[in-house]
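so my prof wants the structure for this chain in the tokens format not the other one, which i didnt know existed until like an hour ago. anyway here's the sequence
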Amino acid sequence: MSRLSTGVGTGRRDRHGPAPWIIGRLPESRWEDFRTLRLKALQQDSKAFGSSYEEEVTYGKETWIGRIESVIFALIDDRPVGMISIIKRNRIKTGHAADIFGMYVAPDYRGKGIGDDLVKNAISVASKFDGVIKVVLSVNPKQEAALNLYRKNGFEVAGEFKKELLVDGEYYDEFVMERFL
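here's what i got, hopefully its the right format
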């Protein structure tokens, strides 16, 4: 695993000393760890994602390897417990923005600052993308902890999609949030 050059999160201190997690990337060879965490996220928090377990469980090795390069992980004892994806848009008219998606922290590790470290790292990565001036994400407003985390990190609601997600027969709205760098 290679650490991110930002170092955000790796030096956090709590009352017991340094944070027990490391924020960084995983090599392609660890694609199965990524797959396991992502599928767990889709099963446990299905209302938080635009994709579904049923779709992604069918993805093959090459798909997971292709996706892992955009993911930042939180690791404890070299085991992924959280993740966030950040991608620079590649079109001429929208290349000034980066997108965050796939944010997840395993339930046993929530409330410890891992999500905050992941978001801060994603923002830091986006700020290094050539020409990027803002970061954009979508969030289900019923995911209050996620909404508060994004607000805490400077994201503001820029719009709302009504009935954007359909999960188990129920519709959910999504907020579009943005943060200028």
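also thought this was worth mentioning. The longest helix spans residues 114-128.
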